[in-house]
Amino acid sequence: MSEFYHRGSEPDIRSDSDGSELVGGQAHTSTPLDVLVMGMHYAPEHAGNAPYTTGLARALLCAGHRVRVVTGYPHYPGWKIAEGYSGLRISELDHGIPVTRVRHPVPSTPTARRRVVMDLGFALHAATVTGRRPDVVVAVTPVLLTVAAALRWKRRGRTALGVVTQDLYSRALLETGMMSARCASLAAGLERSLLNCADGIAVVHENFIRNLSELGVDRPTVSVIRNWSHVAPARTGRSETRRKLGWGPDEVIALHAGNMGVKQGLENVIEAARRADDSPDAVRFVLLGDGGQRRLLQAAGVGVRSAMFLDPLQDGDFEDALAAADVLVLNEAPTVAEMSAPSKLTSYFAAGRPVVAATDPRSAASREIERSQGGVRVSPGDPAALFHAVATLGRDPARGQKLGDRGRRYAQQYLTADFAARAYCEWVEKLAWSR
Question: By C-alpha distance, which of 94, 69, 100 is closest to 17?
Fold first, then answer.
């Protein structure tokens, strides 16, 4: 559910490595623990929570712990199983971490019912994986049923259960309109029950603490460990990158990079581009990535001259594209307020470009824009406001550079892999001690 996508920046996870590139370096040392990490998404996926689940596992390995992973087949955000993955179960090594991949359904059109079937299929299959009993099992949501699969390992005095909450499951169902209010209420009850079984919960933003408390989750068990920026610096000059991508030197490029799903509400961006067609300002809105809504968005953008679609980019090209844009766009559907903390902001800030965020004032994204002073917020679902904010920044490059510099400083201070690696290692070790 959360965001950005590019290919090729991870090593081949089917081969072992000396560990020199593990996230966060040597984060922490202690008595080695056996840790099992369970989550549907993992490298080589680069979208959503896969980079963070991967980084968590590698940081624990770097700290000297014995780590293994149970995950799904790579499929996101294209909603198609990646080439080379077949059969019911695959065993791999990722930097020396044993990875067991279990087969699950992957819907080409991710409706609510089909996603529930996919989540259930993954959880049931993941629950059948056997092995040495771990000291700590970590379940990564928003595939909530992963927590149910992890519960089979929990045992008082022997195995602690930790949950990393990237998105709030029941709020996502309600805010994206994927299910009725009654179904979302039932999901909230399930979410409350499962999360209250955990010995500890790590959330990616402070906003989640209040939401979980309102859900009925025991607040003292909740810790905040923020996602980090995991994109490299740009390697190519802005002019060369813009030429390669077909961007004119004098047009304002407003780039949305990431998943194209229901949550993003990117029809708003298409409509903003339609307004750019009727404006004397040379503004082009670029949508980079893939997702379940891309075909519908492309159909809506037919005839809109100021809208451009780009396929996911290879290693390095993604970072170059971010740095070459004039404005980076974060867009959320008007109904989305408290379900998630968009991970694309970490890469946006690190790129040092100004951000225009069309998001609810209650959202985690809005709070990050305010904290970082790295961009401006406009109302979601208001294409005229989005276009105006982009065009205004485009006419004032000095202000845009100032905002971009503030965002980069914020990322360097608060959104680093080293900080997250240490925090996750300490969190897991505390879970083990709590047994």
Answer: 94
